[in-house]
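1st attempt posting a full record on here, be nice pls
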Amino acid sequence: MSIKIISSEEFKKRFSYSMEKFNEFYWAVAWAGQEFDISKRLISHYRNKIKRMVVGLHFYQTHPNFIKKVINVSEVKFIKQPEGTFHTKTYIFYNNKTDWTAFVGSANFTNAAFTENTETIVMIKNENEDVLSSIMSVVDTNWNLARSFTGPEFSRYKKIWAKKNLHAKKLQEPFVKSKKDLAEAAVKDMSWQEFIEGVKKDKHGYRGRIEMLHKAK
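the predicted structure (as tokens):
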């Protein structure tokens, strides 16, 4: 058996290769994002390889566009635990008991996880049937708790998702465009009087800051 910790960059390469090589997919993931290259290929070329896929709905992070693409796929179900958070990221690619690969780590099925995020992923490869059974139990247990979307449920989810994401976008504009490290921000070492004098000279002034507080509220 082979166990290896891989980088985010290598994860994307290995994941793409596994989608082509293996015939069956068993996944349990906290959330899935808007369409990106790997998800497009999953739906257009490898949908018949999905045997069990469980996707979480907590915090309305799973994108409605993804749900729409798979809402009629019986092998894809969704879960929202009544307590705690469904937070697993487990991907199993399977041909037979001695030919399989699993990825377990921090990476959700999102574009950011496969591109810009710093993720930690453990890649486990074949041979040991007990290890495979242990990882597969994560998918199987949550599959039994998950369920498919109905049309009315999906409509309601979209409305709530849109409302929550609208608030998030409002908070991001125009206040998060700086690429500076927050730890290096001058304000953290200012006295209150220095901060007030700085605000008077700043282009946002008092009004811009009050507006930001209203949006945050």
